[in-house]
Amino acid sequence: AKMYGEESFLNIPYVINNGSILKMLGLNLGPIPGFNDKNKKERIYPVNQDTIRKFFKDTKPDKLNLWFNRDFSSWMRKKSAYRSGLFIEDASYVPLPGNPNYQYADYIWLDEDGNHAEKDAPGARLVQCYKFSSLLNTDRDGSYYIYAGARIDPGNVNGLNEGRDLIEGFVENGGYIDTLLMDRGYIDGPTLTHYKKDYRINWVIPLKTNMAAYDDVMGLCRAKDVDWKTYHLEQNDDGFIAR
């Protein structure tokens, strides 16, 4: 429900408004005081927000994460949801209100835009947060984004191992990744080699002038006797990459 942009438990019941699903989950159903039969349109019967809160509180995080990254993504794959083969691995921080009851959350320095910052950077502030890692499927036009994996970790994790777990879990569960656009927090040499050698994943990474990979590219561009070839990509009718 949070993926629909609902932050308040008070609004979540209106997202989960399917009576069959609510009954299966064991959540309370019933008429709301003041409702009547005058309206021709079907009424939405929300569950009580305290019931929703207790339901999520009793959910084991590890089991929920395993269900989403294994069972749910496997079901989506069988529905051909990820057939483009194009994925984005991204990270973002989830700021918290500084409450000690948030387990495993850590304080890190963030800038005004919510990105990781150095302690002495202008506008940097110490914020309690989680780190949200996501694996998104999209097409070349960016016309849609579908979750293929996600996880929440303490805000101070470097993300490298967490990102690798997302990719390995998706592929070893039967998923197919042709091209992966990677956030720089998930990048190091052994990881890129592992993806290409073991999973045949073509990866796209951002380059900065202080990166060794940038020096390699510039060196190749300055080389004299390099036989440059155009790299062609073709998609068949099902959206898969045709070599």
Automatic annotation (TrEMBL):
InterPro entries for this protein: Transposase_11 (IPR002559)
Protein name: Transposase IS4-like domain-containing protein
Pfam family, one: DDE_Tnp_1
Annotated GO biological process: DNA transposition
Single GO MF annotation: transposase activity
Domain (Transposase IS4-like) ranges: 90-235
